[in-house]
């Protein structure tokens, strides 16, 4: 009886595996040009600054999926502008330094220019940390 139960369990597992593969093939065929990046490309990135609460980071993808993350002001140590140097260019990007030393990059798909980053940096700091106003 135990052997028969094990056979049915194995058969059921194989059927589930076959159905899962068939479903994944259908999903893959529904993707335009068979390329995942065509539905996972970022359409919009935004940061909502809420006084005394924190930052809401939102990323909207081409397929309509929206990723939202909230960083509380109590966990934020600082907001910084970093630079990344590649073989051909220097890219400036904004990050949030958390108190647990995690670095959360912002605008990872759009890469705003340094002038816009500087403006956002000053405005975000003025709202989140009014006690330490920047000159």
Assembly state: single chain
Inertia-based shape: elongated
Share of helical residues:
25-40%
- The largest sheet has its strands arranged as 1-2-3
Q: How many E-type strands? A: 6
| Largest sheet data | 3 strands, antiparallel
Task: Reconstruct the topology from this structure.
Elements: H1 2-30, H2 37-40, E1 42-50, E2 54-61, E3 66-72, E4 76-85, E5 90-98, E6 103-105, H3 114-128
Antiparallel strand pairs: 1-2, 2-3, 4-5, 5-6
Quick overview:
The chain is α+β, with helices and mostly antiparallel strands and 135 residues long.
Detailed description of the structure:
- The protein has 135 residues and is α+β, with helices and mostly antiparallel strands.
- 36% of the residues lie in helices and 34% in strands.
- It has helices at 2-30, 37-40, 114-128, and strands spanning 42-50, 54-61, 66-72, 76-85, 90-98, 103-105.
- Strands 1-2-3 form a three-stranded antiparallel beta sheet. Strands 4-5-6 form a three-stranded antiparallel beta sheet, covered by helices on one side.
Based on the model shown, name its key terms:
single chain, 135 residues, alpha+beta, three-stranded antiparallel β-sheet, 3 helices, 34% strand
